[in-house]
TrEMBL record:
InterPro entries: Beta-lactam/transpept (IPR050515), Beta-lactam/transpept-like (IPR012338), PCN-bd_Tpept (IPR001460). Residues 55-74 have a biased composition (Basic and acidic residues). Residues 1-24, 55-82 are annotated as: Disordered. The chain crosses the membrane at residues 32-51. GO terms for cellular component: plasma membrane. Residues 156-448 form the Penicillin-binding protein transpeptidase domain. This is Penicillin-binding protein transpeptidase domain-containing protein. One of its GO terms (biological process) is cell wall organization. It comes from Chitinivibrio alkaliphilus ACht1.
Amino acid sequence: MTKNYGHTPYKHRRYGKRNGSSGPPQKGRIRLVLFLILVSFFFSRVIIPSFRGEVEPPKRADQTPVKDDARPDTTEPSDTVPTQEVALDTSATLPPSFSLTHDDLPQLLKSASQDFTGTPDTLVWQDRSMIVHYSMKPRLNRLGKSFMESYRPRFGAVVLFQPKTGRILSLSSYENPDNPESMSEFSTPVYTNASIPAASIAKIVTATAAVEILGHTEQHVLRYHGDKYTLEEDQLQQHLSAGIDISLRRAFAESINPVFGTMGIFELGANNLYTYAQNFGFNTKIPFMLPVDTSVFHYPQTNLEIAQAASGFSYTNTISPIHGALMAGAIANQGIMLTPTIVDSVIDLETEKQVYARSDSYWRRAFKAKNYPPLNEMMKDVSRYGTATSAFTFVRDSPRFRDFHYGGKTGTLTMAGYGLVDWFVGYLLDEDDVEQNVACAVVMIKPPRWQGRSSYIGAELMRRHVMNLQEQVQHEQKDTAHE
């Protein structure tokens, strides 16, 4: 018999039997659920919104909520300085239509180095970081600089570009670091300096005017007497009873001053010379992405000045290396001069979107396309038997250039206060392949004697560039064949 000690045995307590009940009775469970619902509501409507800045707007005395249609999506500004990441997220996003134009590039390139290598730069434009991809070829830039460092002139510059696109492939300026004479007022970079006498590069202007205005062919015969490279009064006669007869192409190839001086005075005149100099871009701002000095061609007033301007025996008619390359490119491109460019594309660093892409841009026409053949022959003769014969030895002897058009013009003149100026402008082109078209300008001021000429540097840079392109094509063709 079980004893009763005044309380219900464990198995008969109100919480039920140990083996039959799973928790409190139904009434207790309902209270617990209601309590949990109340806590959940409190957290969802009060605690959490207060952390998110989503507290309900205050009410007026009449308990009508204050309507704030102008409230921005972001929180109110505070005294806390935001991190850089937050600032970029809220204010640096470009509009969908944002883009840079050609006219914006000079401002962008202000912070760029003047000594271009061709590798991409990260520059700042309107407080934004931009990745600038250049058209320059690092290999060509290194090669041009190595030539200058080997020959060590007082100053020098190299410009290579594609005359049919305007893309500059190499742009370098040289100043001899070990020569005390280099510490002068001569402005650098040299490739934009237009205080350098044009010398016989001006004969390109005269020859073009003679072909286009006078109708002279490259075989037209002229006469001169005396030294080829002087310009004396007795040489500047309209009718010479005695002298040496020579074709226009030969006179151009050998750069014979009295022939061009006489033709300037008695056949072309000051106005035609001045007009064609302007056709080639003298006295005109070059639309380049970097500041370039304006090349100068003065209007000649006397017969002697006309002869000097026509032959290039002038110290006041000056040109920049960039302009010299454009002049050679005008011959190569049958009279058309395109706007020179050094930037292929610009990428916004934050959005990784392209905001600028280069395109060909027409600048001016120097002469009519139908007059290209005689001018090309004259330029070619300079490299075949003229003043740049030795510089083009490897081009002439290579079968790979048999169908190419090539040539140029040399020029030498002493620059007051600086020494001898040695010029070369020229081109090497395949008419069927835009990529294998290149024009150049090379200048050395006071180069060491017998240690290289600008014509050799120019010819070698163009030759090696085209050979490299051809080898790349051959490799690609072999890879395709193996696949």
